[in-house]
TrEMBL record:
Organism (species): Desulfofervidus auxilii
Cofactor(s) required, per the database record: Mg(2+)
Gene3D superfamilies in alphabetical order: Adenylosuccinate Synthetase, subunit A, domain 1, Adenylosuccinate Synthetase, subunit A, domain 2, Adenylosuccinate Synthetase, subunit A, domain 3
Name of protein: Adenylosuccinate synthetase
Subcellular location: Cytoplasm
Domain of life of the organism encoding this protein: Bacteria
Cited function: Plays an important role in the de novo pathway of purine nucleotide biosynthesis. Catalyzes the first committed step in the biosynthesis of AMP from IMP.
Residue positions binding substrate: 300-306
NCBIfam families: PRK01117.1, purA
Predominant cellular place of this UniProt entry's protein: cytoplasm
GO cellular component, one term: cytoplasm
Length: 423
């Protein structure tokens, strides 16, 4: 296996959690390298659903070491709640199994307050943030005013900086956003309690990964969200607040890019996105509702219904190029079972011409009309099927996707559980 990166190729929610869980069987170390608890990975094991927001989903494999890299922003309350849920399910977290980067930044209560107040102030022009404080936390990181995990270990330093930050944030909250301010003493006491619980898990993740590489360990890197939510390459401003592409493991985990052996891209057999932003193949009719209900397309983090549409191969191919994807994992093929006709977008009609990329300008995207290729559907169940046993129409659909993208399909998911997969 060596060192593998798993990346989403659409707008997130591609089913990366299941693919990571599958690949984790061959890994020694599983690493999360960007994003925050605005992302969610859902895994079904022995009929039981597990949802992770921060802890790498490889934690369900008892012999694996899991890490949170410095590129992740951490809400300690959410992290400790995940600790609790895992323990309730018989999964014990120890410093020998789980390591948090000392350089990872902390989400503070004022980050969440600002996030929510801004969205309320924007009204109809809101971008659809989850309100978890992710964006404001990354803002402070870029402004060099944030708190890192290691800062929790220095009480006097933390208190001094916190007083300054709260004075500034409360002015912004109360005077401009017309929202309630936050309490310094309450936050300080709460975060010192977090420090007591989390301190045994805090360490130098980059140093650990370098040693693991020298010892020829197999390392699996899991991304959050999807390529088209990337700060630079996504549908800005309807994006997340971090870089979601594969190259982010350099900055987000401190791992050298030339040590990566394989990049696997994950995409659904159709397309979804949450919140606002362009979506050329969106289906707003009964067919879109059908995909949402059958695919259980509701956010793992927020519960929000996802917008659904046909597979957009223009979007996916851009992501393949951006990430240098070598293999494709296609998920939720079973959701398409029962449809008479299945469509895929192979280009956009823009001002009388066919283009093979998504324009940057929103006004240009609004003029783009999907160019579709149609395929006959299938009625047979895919459960328990091998590649040879798949309906010929399903195989034709998959083979076209592989040929169009120019990469092989290495994994096909035919249901939510670990067992429902074709490799």
């Amino acid at each position: 296996m060596a060192n593998v990166v798993v990346i989403g190729l659409q707008w997130g929610d591609e089913g990366k959690g299941k693919i990571i869980d599958l690949l984790a069987e061959q890994a020694d170390v599983v690493v999360r390298f960007q994003g925050g608890n605005n992302a969610g990975h859902t895994i079904v094991v022995n009929g039981k659903k597990h949802i992770f927001h921060l802890i790498p989903s490889g934690i369900l494999h008892p012999e694996k070491r899991c890490c949170i890299g410095n590129g992740v922003v951490i809400d300690p309350a959410v992290l400790l709640e995940e600790f609790k849920k895992l323990e309730e399910n018989g999964v014990e977290l120890t410093p020998e199994r789980f390591l948090i980067s000392e350089r990872a930044h902390l989400i503070m209560p004022y980050h969440k307050a600002i996030d929510l107040a801004r969205e309320a102030k924007k009204g109809k022009t809101k971008i659809g943030t989850t309100g978890r404080g992710i964006g404001p936390c990354y803002e402070d990181k870029a402004a060099r005013t944030g708190f890192r995990m290691i800062d929790l270990m220095d009480k006097s330093f933390f208190e001094k900086r916190l007083k300054t930050q709260i004075e500034e944030k409360n002015f912004y909250l109360t005077q401009y956003l017309k929202a309630e301010g936050v309490n310094f003493r309450e936050i300080a006491q709460t975060y010192f309690k977090y420090a007591e619980k989390l301190s045994p898990f805090i360490g130098n993740v980059a140093q650990f990964l370098w040693k693991a590489k020298e010892e020829n360990k197999n390392i699996l890197f899991e991304g959050a969200q999807g390529t088209h939510l990337d700060m630079d390459h996504g549908t800005y401003p309807y994006v997340t607040s971090s870089n979601t592409v594969a190259s982010s493991i350099c900055s987000g985990a401190g791992f050298p890019i030339n040590a990566i052996d394989t990049i696997i891209g994950v995409c659904k057999a159709y397309t979804t996105r949450v919140g606002g932003g362009p979506f050329p193949t969106e289906l707003t009719d009964s067919l879109g509702n059908y995909l949402r209900e059958k695919g259980k397309e509701f956010g793992a983090t927020t519960g929000r219904p996802r917008r659904c549409g046909w597979l957009d191969l223009v979007v996916v191919k851009q992501a393949v190029r951006l990430n240098g994807v070598q293999k494709l994992a296609l998920t939720k093929l079973d959701v398409l079972t029962g449809l008479d006709e299945i469509k895929v977008c192979i280009g956009y009609n823009y001002q009388g011409k066919t283009i093979d990329y998504m324009p940057t300008s929103f006004s240009a995207i609004a003029e783009c009309k999907p160019v579709y290729k149609s395929f006959p559907g299938w009625k047979e169940t895919l459960k328990g099927k091998s590649w040879k046993e798949l309906p010929h129409t399903a195989k034709a659909y998959l083979e076209f996707i592989s040929d169009f993208l120019g990469i092989p399909i290495s994994i096909v998911s035919t249901g939510p559980s670990r067992e429902e997969v074709i490799q």
